[in-house]
Amino acid sequence: xxxxxxxxxxxxxxxxxxxxxxxxxxxxxxxxxxxxxxxxxxxxxxxxxxxxxxxxxxxxxxxxxxxxxxxxxxxxxxxxxxxxxxxxxxxxxxxxxxxxxxxxxxxxxxxxxxxxxxxxxxxxxxxxxxxxxxxxxxxxxxxxxxxxxxxxxxxxxxxxxxxxxxxxxxxxxxxxxxxxxxxxxxxxxxxxxxxxxxxxxxxxxxxxxxxxxxxxxxxxxxxxxxxxxxxxxxxxxxxxxxxxxxxxxxxxxxxxxxxxxxxxxxxxxxxxxxx
Length: 275
What we know:
A hairpin with a 5-residue loop joins strand 1 and strand 2. The protein has helices spanning 6-14, 20-27, 31-39, 57-71, 77-85, 101-111, 116-123, 127-134, 142-151, and strands spanning 46-47, 53-54, 177-179, 185-188, 197-203, 218-225, 228-232, 236-240, 245-249, 254-257, 264-271. 30% of the residues are buried. The protein starts with 5 loop residues before the first helix and ends with a strand. The chain is an alpha+beta fold. The chain has 2 domains: 6-85, Multidrug-efflux Transporter Regulator, Chain: A, Domain 2, CATH 1.10.1660.10; 98-271, Jelly Rolls (Sandwich), CATH 2.60.120. The strands form 3 sheets. A 6-stranded antiparallel β-sheet has the order 3-4-5-11-6-9, with no helix packed on it. The chain has a 3-stranded antiparallel β-sheet with strand order 8-7-10, with no helix packed on it. A two-stranded antiparallel sheet has the order 1-2. It is globular, with a radius of gyration of 19 Å.
């Protein structure tokens, strides 16, 4: 494959895109496999002005999932498509859809007088991807939502139009909850707290944070059912199983993933409020 012109190479670096070759090396697959996955409709990479395929870090995480489903779960292309497109039914009340987020994100960004390029750079995503989120053409992962919340000096739940109640007692059906595009469901177990943020996470098979994120504070996890694989700083990997307790410093870059065939359910506590 001919080497892209210098102008395209500069753009790749500036917007944090990866080329076909770079992406293939990271995943340990061939460039032809990436093109095959594109041809069968599993992915749709961006294109440079010179029509070279470009892969951002959000798409890289999708590719990692596809590789896992192919190599570990031994799924066929139709099976991978079905799993990637599936939207499990919510298991908690008051679940909110992400298409509502776009207008809120745009309003927050403009209130801070941030341009698309600057906000995207601070969030570690591409301007094109942030623009697509704001236009409700695509959905953000947990990791992306956390990074945007940090840049906009807010919490993730502020992106969603959910009731803001307060009280010591939260009965079933009264919690604030949301679900990401990959099917991860997160319900706040308290309302009105100042420092403590307990949540109930439900993570479907092969779903996760879709990238790493970090923030101030500490986090505690108690596994109820299923398994969760969590990486800290890309150096530590821990697999949590029912009954396990786990804590870590939130300033460590962390990402997580459900490697099993069953839903993972856990109590997840943050301090201070970050979600």
